[in-house]
Amino acid sequence: MALALERIEHQLAPIIKQVAQLLHARVWATNARHVVIASSETEAIGVSLRALGKSPRQPTMVALAAPIYLTRLGVSELLVEQLDGESVAPHLARALIELLASQSSQATEASDQHELKNHFVYSLLFEPSLDEEYLVRQGQMLGIDLTIPRAAILIDATEFLCTANAGDQSELDEALMRQRTRYVINSVVNFFHLPSATICAYVGSGEIVVLKASSARDLIAWADDTTEQREMGEPAPSWAGLPALKRAGAALLARLRHDTGVEISMGIGRYHPGVRGLERSYQDARAALTLGRHFHGSNQMHCLDSLGIAAFIGIPEERTKVDLARRLLGPLDHEPELIETVEAFFAMGCSPSLTASHLCVNRNTLTYRLEKVASLTGLDPRRFDDAVQIRLALLVRSLQQ
User: Fold this and answer.
1) pLDDT (tens digit, 9 = 90+) per residue, 317-353?
2) I need a surface site. Which of 180, 302, 372, 401 has the fewest CB within 10 A?
3) Domains delineated in the chain
4) Rama region for 345: left / alpha / beta (φ>0; ψ in -120 to 50; rest)
5) Across the chain, which distance is largest between two alpha carbons, in Å?
6) Residue-wise over 306-316: b if at least 16 C-beta within 10 A, else e?
7) Is 334 exposed, middle or buried (0-12, 13-18, 19+ CB in 10 A)?
8) In sequence order, what E strands does 179-241 have?
9) Number of neighbours of residue 333 by Cβ within 10 angstroms
10) Alpha-helical regions (H) of 24-149
């Protein structure tokens, strides 16, 4: 009951404030028992009209009594007493009240819709026990299509949504927090130009998740070659569609920095098939954001395949490590000679002379092979960090064979 009264007062308060200012009047809203539930005079809230000496049946005391209809709250009565002898035609005052009430109801309905979507996305990502068919139906009721491939983008907008107060980190006023959250979400939707295909929701702690449609057709604007543009309209494999998604994320990050004027960090998740794949994609984005901020700093975009050694050290899920190892070594799948060369290079302590001798090749041949590995994988075995990544990927993949 207390929560319901608080909600009623919250919705009526802006209407009463505007009516009081525009008509230069005292304003009360009452329930069916003629008890004040909201007022321009806060001390009157909870007091009966009789105790206040007011009554809609005493025209000398109340200039106007108008019913006000609010979504889900039923009917209240708004009483207006103008001050200083000023007078406004009752029909004009009534029209003003009805207009403000209509605007408030529409704003509340929109707010409720946003809250429902936030709750739905939260359930989708954090309640794995829910049935997929149930989630699809619930999504359809909210205008959310879960049948198309999607990948998660996790936005850390803490600096914009939260602020320091007296030396401590604290949340902004709740209304301003909601307003800023909607501002960020609108920036995301406007950036992608696809309000019906881009699902955004606030998931707490200053973070917003975007479930971005990620078929080749949805990402064609960020695909830079014909390989990435193949199979138009078909869901791309997890890693294959990632380059375009990362470019989209980088462009979105630049837009959000511009729109908010503060530092923004971002984690990009891979596409995983099925409704439950969205949870895995979110976990990818969460791990990339957490590890990326820790090892590479904030105000950047992070993804699992660009975390380097940190991905193998910091990711607890074995399946993701195996996927990453296969991703890094994939370009060498049809190059057994290069795999043999890299393994020998590591076995010989990364010594070129010892490796060349072990493989019975000359130094130039060894150099050519190592450079080809670097060209295919983007990782140079002669550089320490890259060598560690390749070595860890070989070990992880060997455990699964």
Assistant:
1) 888 888 889 889 989 989 999 999 999 999 999 999 9
2) 401
3) 2-108 (3.30.450), 127-307 (3.30.70.270), 328-399 (1.10.10.2840)
4) alpha
5) 109
6) bbbebbbeebe
7) exposed
8) 198-204, 207-213
9) 9
10) 49-52, 90-126, 132-141
The pTM for the full model equals: 0.68
Residue at 207: amino acid letter: E
Sequence-distant (6+) residues with CB within 8 A of 139 are 120, 124, 145, 146
Query: Is residue 133 left, alpha or beta, with left meaning phi > 0 and alpha meaning psi from -120 to 50?
Result: alpha
Bigger pLDDT: 59 or 130? 130
Tell which phi-psi region holds residue 93, choosing left (phi > 0), alpha (psi between -120 and 50) or beta: alpha
Among residues of the chain, what percentage have pLDDT more than 90?
A: 34
The amino acid at residue 316 is P
Strand partners, 170: 163
Cβ neighbors of 201 (< 8 A, separation 6 or more) are: 117, 118, 120, 121, 122, 185, 208, 209
Model pLDDT, residue 15: 74
- Cβ neighbour number for residue 351 with a 10 Å cutoff: 12
